[in-house]
Structure to design on (558 residues):
């Protein structure tokens, strides 16, 4: 017997419960674990601390000027150019394919390092490495689409900690092989190649994300998540009839969850192809306005009938989807509105500014620190190179601090500016001393302190920014902050490093980087002193970690 139009029937109870965003309630642990495994292996590259000695050594036989001023700047330029395109592709392809591409470009990078020769080939190697690092946005944003907001602080800490652990393991392994096994730099690059190949395997097995921010804003159920039905029923009924949507059943009795945000419910506005049958290709339903009535509940059968008001909106003829250019324009308008909405938050803007400025400086220091060490203690004349051990110590300390920050309770709304200012001024002093010293051990020690402080603050900044945003805007802010950092780094590289610019020696470059951090620290310290003085230092010390209290305080001080 054919069922009346507007009714769908679930013959068996749905045993999997969904979260507010339509994901499986227990899937966040699986997604986090697989992503952490991927993050570990992609960072387990023991050859990386020895890249400069490798390029200048007998295997590649490149000069200091070629490495510093011709090859390394290519990474900065390719990173900047690729980031914007990668951000859009990350959203369009829903994260996982871009993560797979990241692993593939790492493999390409190490293939060129192992078997390529000459300046042009090494420049192409830096280009592919720039593509790989640009796609990191997918690694850091994937998890926010795969887990619920209540887990954001923990998964932020876990994903960043495991990256540091991967680097730590790589650094320790590389240093042990160099110091005790007399391994060559070529051997370390072979191990790095194997590690990124393992990372590719984990990337392939990552759970797919059914929704993204702009191109695939709503998630539709997959066929594996739909309740089974017999072949006879397939000809007799549909899960969703023309023009209607269903709620998510939370138990056998057919109750419907009301806490699913509008637009995240199945059947919300969506232009992409859906596995659910429908006649209107451009079908849009406001999920918050749907009305349901329970028609009958018998055993394992739940029937739901839409009200007549909803059935009148059905169309018999399909309409064409909007044009590609029109849809693209709508997406960019939405992105721009989200951009303005996000950065109108003064608290978020403060942390984002430090994020962008400090990341720029950190990238420059990380990119050229091996050059500085090689100037202080040339690797050609010193077989005892401890680059890997130094990186291992910095990553170990950073990992411990990053993990511990997941459980630290500090009122960053009150003390954040002061903290950022003090750390930045301290980093400035460290860089200036590193630029002037002739003792390699002082340079090693200060570099460890610099990198640890950066990793500590960037972890805090990450979950402070994430806490201010809806899921839909975090990747946008992450991408914008990184883009600004890369833009500043590109300007620095073009002026101070590139052979077509000033082409300054690396010691002078580090003095400039120290001045750069001093300016950042001075700005944040000045703002912190002004704000705390206006509020009262003693009163600020007594304030709890309470958002409402902070907003009331803001109203009284502005």
């Amino acid at each position: 017997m054919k069922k009346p139009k507007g009714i769908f029937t679930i013959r068996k109870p749905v045993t999997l419960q969904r979260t507010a965003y339509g994901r499986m309630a227990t899937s966040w642990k699986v997604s986090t674990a697989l992503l952490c495994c991927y993050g570990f292996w992609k960072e387990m590259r023991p050859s990386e601390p020895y890249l400069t000695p490798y390029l200048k050594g007998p295997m590649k036989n490149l000069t200091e000027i070629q490495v510093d001023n011709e090859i390394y700047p290519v990474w900065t330029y390719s990173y900047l150019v690729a980031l914007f395109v990668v951000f859009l592709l990350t959203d369009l392809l829903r994260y996982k394919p871009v993560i797979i591409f990241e692993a593939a470009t790492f493999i390409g990078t190490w293939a060129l390092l192992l078997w390529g020769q000459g300046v042009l080939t090494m420049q192409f190697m830096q280009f592919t490495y720039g593509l790989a690092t640009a796609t990191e946005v997918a690694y850091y944003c994937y998890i926010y689409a795969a887990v619920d907001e209540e887990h954001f602080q923990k998964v932020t800490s876990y994903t960043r900690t495991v990256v540091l652990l991967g680097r730590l393991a790589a650094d320790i392994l590389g240093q042990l092989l160099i110091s005790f096994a007399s391994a060559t730099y070529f051997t370390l690059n072979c191990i790095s190649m194997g590690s990124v190949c393992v990372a590719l395997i984990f990337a392939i097995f990552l759970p797919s994300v059914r929704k993204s921010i702009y191109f695939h804003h709503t998630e539709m159920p997959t066929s594996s998540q739909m309740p089974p039905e017999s072949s006879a029923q397939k000809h007799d009924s549909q899960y969703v009839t023309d023009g209607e949507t269903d709620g998510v059943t939370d138990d056998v009795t057919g109750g419907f969850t009301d806490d699913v945000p509008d637009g995240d419910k199945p059947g919300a506005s969506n232009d992409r192809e859906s596995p659910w049958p429908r006649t209107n290709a451009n079908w849009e339903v406001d999920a918050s306005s749907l009305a349901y009535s329970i028609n009958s509940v018998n055993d394992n059968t739940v029937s739901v009938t839409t009200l007549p008001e909803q059935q009148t909106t059905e169309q018999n003829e399909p309409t064409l989807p909007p044009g590609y250019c029109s849809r693209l324009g709508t997406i960019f308008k939405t992105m721009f509105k989200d951009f303005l909405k996000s950065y109108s938050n003064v608290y978020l803007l403060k942390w984002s500014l430090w994020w962008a400025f400090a990341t720029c400086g950190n990238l420059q220091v990380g990119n050229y620190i091996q050059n500085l060490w090689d100037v202080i203690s040339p690797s050609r004349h010193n077989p005892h190179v401890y680059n890997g051990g130094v990186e291992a110590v910095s990553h170990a300390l950073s990992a411990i601090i990053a993990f511990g920050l997941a459980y630290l309770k500090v009122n960053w709304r009150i003390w954040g500016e002061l903290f950022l200012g003090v750390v930045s001024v301290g980093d400035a002093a460290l860089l200036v001393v590193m630029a002037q010293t002739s003792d390699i051990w002082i340079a090693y020690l200060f570099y460890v302190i610099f990198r640890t402080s950066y990793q500590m603050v960037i972890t805090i900044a990450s979950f402070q920014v994430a806490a201010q945003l809806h899921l839909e805007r975090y990747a946008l802010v992450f991408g914008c902050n990184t883009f600004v950092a890369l833009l500043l780094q590109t300007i620095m590289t073009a002026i101070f490093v590139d052979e077509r610019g000033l082409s300054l020696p690396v010691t002078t470059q580090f003095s400039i980087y120290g001045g750069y951090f001093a300016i950042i620290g001075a700005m944040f310290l000045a703002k912190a002193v002004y704000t705390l003085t206006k509020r009262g230092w003693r009163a600020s010390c007594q304030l709890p970690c309470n958002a409402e209290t902070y907003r009331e305080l803001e109203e009284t001080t502005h």
In short: Residues 346-376 form the longest helix (31 residues). Strands lie at 7-10, 292-298, 301-306.
